[in-house]
TrEMBL record, chain A:
The keyword Nucleotidyltransferase does not apply. Coiled coil: none annotated. Pfam families: Fer4_11, Form-deh_trans. It comes from the Bacteria. One of its GO terms (biological process) is cellular respiration. Residues 1-29, 306-330 are annotated as: Disordered. This is Formate dehydrogenase subunit beta.
Length: 330, 815, 199
């Protein structure tokens, strides 16, 4: 059964995809945000907000989500090596939009081992730091259903989205120097399907639907977990980024960081947040400068990043326009 | 499986022991998470490692590999001692009340009749006391000291929580918690399911592991009910089908068995198989054996199988040993007594224990034929890959044929899943280059051999020349033709036995199911238990109606389940003595005063009155066996036995090594290691990212788990100076491998019989072909010895040593 | 269009016009802001669906093969995607990490293409035709059977055992293939006949 396209957004991932030619249900008219664009017209309609809910307590760490993601998106992660962990590849890459991160945690209250397995990937923030940081017009967009998507043709590969992301998600391709991350399978959602990972997930630890429904589902799961002794079970839908369209049910919601450093209270960097209108471009330059000033740490330390010439260019811009003020922003 | 995957949602307690369902069967495990989510079910995992299944469990208890019998006997004892027994079920549906012969006993880890020279038991005392009519004697009050129930209690007496801790290394409090949770399922309205796999079978006492749990389930009243059962999670997509169809040395189709040399003629063969009831008035279904056997012979040899020639009985091989199982065949090969070998979709170089021996064995073959969609290590066993396959290529004189076959996506037919569903699938892709269907390849070799026999004659050509091969295109029989042949048909008009004027099935028509098969040569059926799969209604295996009235999980109109489309075996036992469901919310079938009916096909004659016919109709008793008489080689009750290679001695009999009646060849006995030399207890297993040795050919799975590793505890790593992610060498008496070390808290040392036991975990997915990094497998190290009843190798428990090491070298680097 | 603008040119442009308040000054005027927002074209459009079953474990999940081309119309069918079948009662559309990557099993670079033959002592496989392979295998098998067949035991009982050639059958083949294989092996008297159920 395929979702009726009468509905503006799919309600589930558990359906078989259509094979007839269909028009995409997501496009320019559905944008609520567009990177480096100040005068975006309001969307023609408001789509129902969607969300992916990841119930960590149901997840068996099988990596079906990774597999389904690679197959659906036709990416080509390389064969790495074992470095003593189950997390493979060892980080998100431009070819691996989602990653099971494994943490062995001894619960101090019970002295029992808990093997915490968290599916990492784009959280599709309501207030997306990547989009706000992006200097390339239309390279990052947000649809009214909540999906934050990269329009690769518009991407300039500057890596600011990485810096702007409170979850450290986007990765820049070494091949085409463009940024990649989970699209929430926008191509599937656009024809009434849920994301490939949610469809594949064997235990349905990953479910997909409207954000309201997902919150209700989470309530049910949290009640079950509490009945099993997880007093701090709860929903991770961090308000520091305006809530997210990928949410977690955590057995220990009082300490998200035990799940492979999931931020306890993620926020968009103050630098990115302060950018408004014209200052954005100043801010961008600032960011470039700061990166240089930080001795090529962070995003700018990564390969295939800014050439020396570029850095000098950025620095010059900064000097010209701001003098030494920018350093105060650090 | 007695039940189906979809039935697991009906359970209250899932016990995963001897398996790792979340990891090896993730989509089946979905039904565990359903039961947890929607019924509030609990999940217990008992395993040497904290597995992915354990990561979502409600309770985890560690256990030393190979000691499951002690644990389960301990649980049985706990249940009995605490009155946690489904009394009514146990008394009526098991053989608990039957009286056992006086001379049967158990001492020092051995049952009566042990002969150390023969490594076998004289099992004559392991039986019931029969009355003059040949029926069992019993004491329904369970007072008689020699009744099965009291003998069982006596047998279990030593399995105290302290003893369980001593043998298994499971801390007493953890054992008791598990025992308590399990014991709660003794009420008629609470049920438990057992999900197990090769963690139980790959032991020299594997059959008894399973038997111990089956007995526990019977005591708790959990067999035949929704959400209960003994659920063997089979490995391959059609391993159930190939077993059902008898592609094994000791089997014919539908669990009919190969004759042995003792079966001098058909009458003798039948005598030991048509089991007469041991309880008056009971149904002993194997009394129909002859109908199935004759129909099978007719299916094989058609008109050449006639009453006059004992239905072609002499066309069958007669075994001189219990089976030419794979261990025996590789031993014979090793001795130079095998010349040719065909590996169809099988990679024995990585699958069988003691790889060095297997390599030597394969090197002695004159010819090897492999049929596979993928490269296999077996087909390239002669190729040097440095440390990964260090062979002297030029010295290997084996001629090898590597034949490319199609894969699932390019072929049509049915596969039988663990839940016995025969599901049809269709081809959707064009095979690559010259790849051919297996059926075509088999047909070509067969037809050419037959032609040679026609033209040249040769050794006993009759069974080959007379084999039924009347397919429209003999070069490639179609899946439909073969499926119809398996189902069976009438060879002459079949008249209704109760009304000889009424035509039941016209000659040439498909029989509706095995109830129409006859022993007079008027029917043919390739595999009786599959009969009904493709009858005059059409291909029932291709049915795709996924409605499930009242959400019982039965899905009666989805494909076809053997036997007779029955979804839960022994489902008569889901109802009480009056035919009412033990748990009305979990009804399967019910007696309405005249017949049985409900959500499933009743596993009893539809008009057999409750109280008259027992639910276990495949047994001569009509009841299930807590005491298995002489039907298993290693005892009528499960008794603790150590693995052949164990870090501790058997506490009941320190001189006893492994299973006292397992067959072990001399060269392999000489290659057993001791704990002095090899102090660590190794085990082998699958990882969820891979399927056997196939998915290392797949770029995606190779990326998800790229490189061979072994897992050890933080404690052992510290003791041996091993770094996480560093190289280690692991070796046993039979071989040596190199691997990356994964140092983890998921494995912790156990204290067994007072001393610490370290566990080394070795996954099995790597080799020297494919996309993943080259690596080794546990079979380089495991011992060449198997289960006493079925000779499944003891791949789950063996001894190794370990040390920090350096990377293995590939050929290029060596030369 | 500025699709091919590299970062470097962006920075240079930025350097020239950063004080401006409109993006146009950066060389990305709205009018030429490259691609409009769009999602990837839905790749299963106009593919052919075929119902199949996962060949790995015994859960036997339902899968759908999506191909360009339709075998049933006599066309060449190239499988471009495989996904769980949501209509299937057991897996409900889900798949494990192996099942979800089935396409890359079908398309594995180590899928065998042609019959190959390795001569005794050789260090390589060489192409051989199917006919050559079948004839040679049949010859080798018949010669071995004729030379080593045990027709009767010491007591003169016909025992019909051929123990010098063995066979392992594949527990991922269909029941129908298995039945054909069974007939082949058992009629020849191959007693060393097993499948993965043994191990």
């Amino acid at each position: 059964m395929t979702n009726s396209l009468q509905m503006d957004s799919p309600r589930t991932a558990v359906s078989n995809p259509p094979v007839q030619a269909m028009d995409s249900n997501l496009g320019e008219r559905d944008l609520v945000r567009r990177s480096a664009t100040s005068d975006l017209p309001p969307p023609e309609r408001q789509l129902t907000a969607v969300a992916k809910l990841i119930d960590v307590s149901k997840c068996i760490g099988c990596k079906a989500c990774q597999s389904a993601c690679v197959e659906w998106n036709d990416t080509h992660p390389g064969v790495g090596e074992n470095v003593g962990v189950y997390t493979n590849p060892h980080d998100l890459t431009e070819d691996m939009f989602t990653l099971m991160r494994f943490s062995e945690w001894i619960n101090p209250e019970t002295d029992n081992l808990e093997w915490l397995i968290r599916k990492d990937g784009c959280m599709h923030c309501a207030d997306p730091g990547c989009l706000k940081a992006c200097p390339a017009p239309g390279a990052i967009v947000q649809y009214s259903n909540g999906i934050v998507d990269f329009i690769h043709e518009n991407c300039i590969g500057c890596g600011y989205c990485v810096k702007g992301c409170p979850f450290n998600i986007p990765r820049i391709s070494k091949a085409d120097h463009r940024a990649y991350k989970c699209t929430l399978c926008s191509d599937r959602v656009a024809v009434g399907q849920g994301p490939a990972c949610a469809k594949a997930c064997p235990t349905q630890a990953i479910v997909f639907g409207t954000k309201d429904d997902m919150k209700k589902h989470a309530d049910e799961r949290i009640a079950d977990l509490k009945s099993r002794g997880y007093a701090n079970a709860g929903l991770y839908d961090p308000q520091g980024v305006g809530g997210t369209h990928v949410m977690y049910v955590l057995h220990h919601n009082d300490k998200p960081h035990i799940y492979a450093d999931l931020p306890d209270d993620p926020k968009i960097s103050g630098v990115v947040q302060a950018w408004k209108g014209a200052t954005k471009y100043v801010g961008l330059a600032t960011m470039g400068f700061l990166a240089v000033g930080a001795a090529l740490h962070g995003v700018f330390a990564k390969p295939n990043r800014v050439s020396h010439e570029d850095e000098e260019g950025a620095e010059e811009v900064l000097k010209d326009k701001l003098g030494g003020q920018s350093e105060e922003r650090a | 499986m007695t039940n189906a995957w979809t039935d697991i949602k009906n359970t209250d307690l899932v016990v995963v022991m001897g398996g790792n369902a979340a990891e090896a069967h993730p989509c089946g495990f979905k039904w565990v998470t359903e039961a947890k989510h929607h019924r509030g079910a609990k999940l217990i995992v008992v395993d040497p490692r904290y597995t992915r299944t354990a990561s979502v469990s409600d309770y985890y208890a560690p256990i030393r590999q190979g000691t499951d019998i002690a644990f389960l006997n301990g649980v049985m004892k706990y249940c009995i001692d605490n009155g946690k027994v489904q009394w009514e079920y146990m008394k009526a549906f098991t053989n608990a009340a039957y009286i056992v012969k006086d001379d049967f006993a158990y001492h020092d880890g051995l049952f009566t009749g042990y002969d150390p020279e023969k490594r076998d038991y004289d099992k004559s005392s392991w039986d019931y006391v029969l009355d003059e009519e040949g029926f069992v004697t019993s004491d329904p009050t369970l007072q008689h000291p020699r009744c099965v129930w009291n003998l069982l209690k006596e047998h279990l007496a030593s399995y105290t929580p302290e003893m369980v801790e001593r043998i298994c290394g499971t801390p007493k409090d953890k054992f008791l918690k598990v025992a308590e949770m399990i014991s709660e399922c003794s009420t008629p309205t609470k049920t438990m399911t057992s999900m197990y796999a090769l963690g139980w079978t790959q032991h020299s006492h594997g059959s008894q592991n399973i038997r111990a749990m089956a007995m526990l389930q019977l005591i708790l009243g959990n067999i035949g009910v929704r959400g209960g059962g003994m659920n063997a999670l089979r490995g391959h997509s059609n391993i159930q089908g190939l077993t059902d169809l008898g592609l094994m040395s000791h089997l014919l189709t539908g669990y009919l068995t190969m004759p042995s040399e003792k079966d001098v003629d058909f009458t003798t063969y039948m005598k030991s198989r048509e089991f007469k009831p041991l309880v008056k008035g009971q149904t002993s279904y194997w009394q129909n054996y002859k109908k199935f056997m004759v129909s099978f012979q007719k299916s094989m040899w058609g008109d050449k199988a006639q009453a006059e020639n004992d239905w072609g009985f002499n066309y069958l091989s007669k075994l001189d040993v219990p089976a030419y199982d794979v261990l025996r065949m590789f031993e014979l090969m090793y001795q130079g007594k095998v010349n040719g070998y065909i590996c169809q979709g099988f990679n024995p170089l990585l699958a069988f224990p003691n790889r060095a021996k297997n390599t030597e064995a394969l090197s002695k073959l004159k010819f090897l034929v492999t049929m596979d969609p993928l490269e296999t290590e077996t087909s390239r066993f002669w190729e040097n890959h440095g440390d990964f396959n260090d062979v002297d290529t030029a010295a290997i004189q084996t001629e090898v044929f590597q034949l490319p076959t199609t894969c699932f996506a390019e072929e049509e037919g049915s596969l039988t899943n663990s839940g016995r569903w025969l599901q049809w699938h269709w081809a959707g892709g064009t095979p690559p280059a010259e790849a051919k269907h297996d059926t075509y390849i088999v047909a070509q070799i067969f037809l050419r051999m037959r032609e040679l026999y026609k033209t040249e004659g040769g050794a006993f050509p009759d069974p080959v020349l007379d084999l039924t091969w009347d397919y429209a295109d003999p070069n490639e029989p179609t899946p439909e033709e073969l499926a119809k042949e398996i189902n069976g048909r009438a060879l002459t008009d079949l008249m209704d036995p109760t009304d000889p004027t009424k035509l039941l099935v016209a000659a040439g028509k498909q029989v509706v199911n095995f109830s129409q098969l006859r022993d007079d040569g008027s029917t043919a059926s390739g595999c009786w238990i599959y009969s009904g799969c493709f009858n005059e209604q059409g291909n029932n295996m291709a049915r795709r109606d996924n409605h499930d009235p009242d959400d019982t999980g039965a899905y009666l109109n989805w494909t076809f389940a053997w036997p007779l489309n029955r979804r839960t075996l022994y489902n008569r036992a889901s109802a009480d003595l009056n035919g009412k469901p033990w748990d009305p919310t979990r009804k399967i079938i019910e007696w309405d005063g005249a017949k049985w009916s409900g959500y499933d096909v009743p596993d009893i004659a539809p008009t057999a009155k409750p109280g008259e016919v027992g639910p276990f109709i495949m047994n001569q008793e009509g009841t299930a066996r807590l005491f298995s008489r002489g039907l298993m080689r290693d005892g009528p009750f499960p008794a603790h036995m150590e693995p052949f290679e164990s870090p501790v001695a058997n506490v009941f009999n320190p001189k006893m090594r492994g299973n006292p009646v397992s067959r072990i060849f001399q060269t392999d006995a000489d290659q057993l290691g001791t704990s002095a030399e090899f102090p660590y207890a190794a085990t082998s297993y699958r990882l969820t990212e891979h399927f056997h040795y196939w998915t290392k050919h797949n770029r995606v799975n190779s990326a998800l788990q790229p490189e061979f590793f072994v897992e050890i505890s933080v404690e052992l790593a510290e003791e041996k100076g091993i770094d996480n992610g560093g190289w280690v060498r692991v070796w046993s008496k039979r071989g040596s491998i190199k691997a990356k070390a994964v140092v983890t808290r998921r494995i912790r040392p156990l204290i067994c019989d007072g001393k610490p036991v370290h566990i080394v975990g070795i996954p099995l997915h790597w080799g020297f072909t494919g996309s993943a990094k080259k690596g080794f497998g546990p079979n380089s190290l495991a011992a060449f010895v198997g289960d006493a009843n079925i000779d499944t190798p003891e791949s789950k428990a063996f001894l190794v040593n370990i040390e920090p090491s350096t990377a293995p070298k590939d050929k290029e680097l060596v030369s | 269009m500025n699709l091919d603008l590299s970062r470097r040119s962006f920075l240079k442009l930025a350097g020239a016009g950063v004080a401006a308040t409109s993006v146009g000054a950066m060389g990305f005027g709205e009018a030429e802001a490259a691609e409009a927002a769009h999602v990837r074209p839905f790749k299963l459009a106009t593919t052919t669906e075929t119902r199949n079953t996962c060949p790995y474990c015994s859960v036997a999940c339902g899968v759908i093969l999506y191909s360009k081309g339709d075998l049933r119309k006599g066309e060449k069918a190239d499988i471009i995607h495989i996904e769980g079948d949501a209509d299937h009662p057991t897996n409900r559309g889900t798949l494990c990490p192996k099942g979800a990557a089935l396409k890359d099993f079908v398309k594995s670079p180590t899928r065998l293409q042609y019959p190959m033959h390795r001569k005794p002592g050789s260090d390589k496989f060489e192409r051989i035709s199917w006919d050559q392979a079948f004839d040679r295998i049949a010859r080798l098998m018949k010669d071995d059977r004729d030379a080593n067949f045990t027709a009767t035991n010491n007591a003169g009982l016909p025992v019909n055992r051929w123990s010098t050639t063995g066979m392992l059958a594949a527990s991922a083949t269909t029941n129908e293939t298995a039945w054909a294989t069974f007939k082949f092996a058992k009629s020849l008297g191959i007693v060393g006949f097993d499948n993965q159920a043994r191990v």
